[in-house]
Amino acid sequence: MRDLTRKYLRIMREIEVAKLLCDAHKFSSHMAHMRMGQQRFPPAGNQTRVAARYCAMNRIALALVLSLAAVAGAHAATAKPAAKVAVRVAPPFPVAPHDNVTIEWWYLNAHVTTMIGRHLAVIGSFFRFGNGNGQLAKDSAVKTPRSHYLIWALTDIDKKTHQAWSLGDQSTLDMMKQYMTFKVLVNPADTKAAAALDALQKNTFPSPTDLLPGKAGVAASPFAVHYGLDNALVPVKGKPNTYTLTLAEPKGGATKLTLTFAAAKPTMYVGGTGNTGLRKPEDMKYLSLTRCAVTGQIATGDAAETVTGDGWFDHQWGDTWTAQSAGWDWWGVQLADGIDILFFRQRDLATGKVFFPLATIMDKAGKLTVTKNIEFVDARSSLWTSPATGVSYPLNWKVTFPDQKLTLAISPDVLDQEMPVISGGDAIWEGSCAVAAQRDGVSVPGTAYMELVGYNSPAVKKLLSAATPK
After folding, report:
1. Residue 316: its pLDDT value, please?
2. pLDDT class for 467, splitting at 50, 70, 90?
3. Residue 403 forms beta bridges with which residues?
4. 151: phi > 0 → left, psi -120 to 50 → alpha, else beta; which?
5. Cβ–Cβ under 8 Å, residues 456 and 428
6. 89 φ, ψ (degrees, to nearest 5)
7. Nearest-angstrom CA–CA distance, 242 and 233
8. Which terminus of the chain faces fewer neighbouring Cβ atoms within 10 Å, N or C?
9. pTM confidence score
10. How far is the C-alpha of 215 from the C-alpha of 168, rounded, in Å?
């Protein structure tokens, strides 16, 4: 078989040489006759002999091809069938909703660039509260529908502008009415809660939150999130771990977007297992797609612009991490070398003390490293005070992971990226940041989203005030 193959290849090379000689002879004879003004008919002579050898070789090659085919057929009849190569498919990201949990949310962010070079950042988070029982107690005999709440924002990094929206459905409004009634009964001097309750009793949210137009809900199979008429998160059919996010400014505003997130890495199980509960680990599940290719369109008043970039997708559900008792500092970092880092620390709002630091690091290949050895330093000189709420936030951070020899310097792309939330007119800081990393002495740039929750707590305010340079 091998001898036949070698002979066939040798003769085919000779055929090519003969063909080239024949073509060259034709061309030179043709040019000579053209120069002499003669007709374009080549003479017989050498060309005839070359062509004859060319044809003979073709006949030999044909016979060899037939011989090779016969041998190959006999070999195929006796050979064992080739083993099938398994195609690795990434396991699906667990996005389906869960019934018996107090809170669940689907969170996405993205840093994108338009075709003309504008740099924009987007964050959107779909919350679902309650498990079908009473909103203030899991075992309440009073049955109420689940509540649906959406916050989203668009930041223009170049123009240093930020737009944010807060939207709830009717069930959220009813839930807040119960909650604010309770707050006013416990503390009649709470004027902020009293003002919020006054608005809620008129079937409107306290400003700046708006009522979602249309119904809101989350479907399990097939998975789909629809909050009102224009806000949705749905999977892309036939493309695993790929989702389309649609958001629109309420009341017919000009800002809207449609972005597709396609996972470029496997699912991150935060902490290695996905268990991040505060009372017990299984109280809160936390999974993430830390690196997604983002494509789509964003409209900011004029025609929609095509954008591309990198995105992030979190899914959390459980019975802790509610901002009534605990706050947190959270970061989702994407470095230019392909490393993604999700890290946070919790805060007791009654005392202001921090606890439960945790970082999950995913390398370019998807390998996880988990550590609690984290050093946080916030630059108190970077405190920014919101003109809307009066809450102060430390916005410049230096975070070190000693075991990984990694240090991150994190700074906001825009100072005012405060996000309104429905709890009595308060807010959180949720914004796009630039990252300058140092790893083993090598500088690596990156991007991040930072979330600062609970800084309106009296205990936290007191701690910040005491530690701030005068």
Report:
1. 97
2. low
3. none
4. beta
5. no
6. -115, 130
7. 10
8. C
9. 0.79
10. 10
Number of H-type helices and E-type strands within the chain: 5, 25
> pLDDT (tens digit, 9 = 90+) per residue, 133-169?
544 444 445 556 789 999 999 999 999 999 999 999 9
Query: Model confidence at 95, in pLDDT bands (50, 70, 90)?
Result: very high
Residue written as token pair 């410049």:
396
- Sort 8 into a burial class: Cβ within 10 Å, 0-12 / 13-18 / 19+: middle
Q: Is the dihedral of CA 455, 283, 287, 136 positive or negative?
A: negative
pLDDT tens by residue, 192-244: 889 989 999 999 999 899 999 889 999 999 999 999 989 999 999 999 999 99
d(CA 117, CA 113) in angstroms, rounded, equals 6
Sign of torsion, CA 418 421 424 425?
positive
Q: CA dist 20 to 13, 30, 51, 404, 431, Å?
A: 11, 15, 11, 63, 68
Tokens 């108190």 locate to 380
- In 349-417, DSSP assigns E strands to 354-362, 368-371, 375-378, 383-385, 392-394, 397-401, 406-412
Which sign, positive or negative, has the C-alpha torsion 450, 456, 457, 463? positive
Among the residues of 36-110, which ranges form H helices?
A: 45-78
Give me the chain's average pLDDT, please.
Answer: 82
Scored b (16 or more CB within 10 A) or e, 157-194 reads beeeebebbbbbbebbbbbbbebbeebbeeeeeeeebe
How far is CA 365 from each of CA 272, 362, 368, 426, rounded to the nearest angstrom? 16, 8, 9, 40
**CA–CA gap between residue 239 and residue 225 (Å, rounded):** 17
CATH classification code of 103-467? 2.40.370.10
The residue ranges of every structural domain in the chain are 2-78, 103-467
Q: Binning pLDDT at 50, 70 and 90, where does residue 469 land?
A: low
Is-contact 345 329, C-beta < 8 A? yes
pLDDT over 90 at 325, yes or no = no
Integer Cα distance of 50 and 389 in angstroms? 93
**Own/partner pairs, 113-116, CB within 8 angstroms, 24+ separation:** 113/307, 113/308, 113/309, 114/298, 114/305, 114/306, 114/307, 115/305, 115/306, 115/307, 116/305
Whether the CB-CB separation of 396 and 127 falls below 8 Å is answered with no
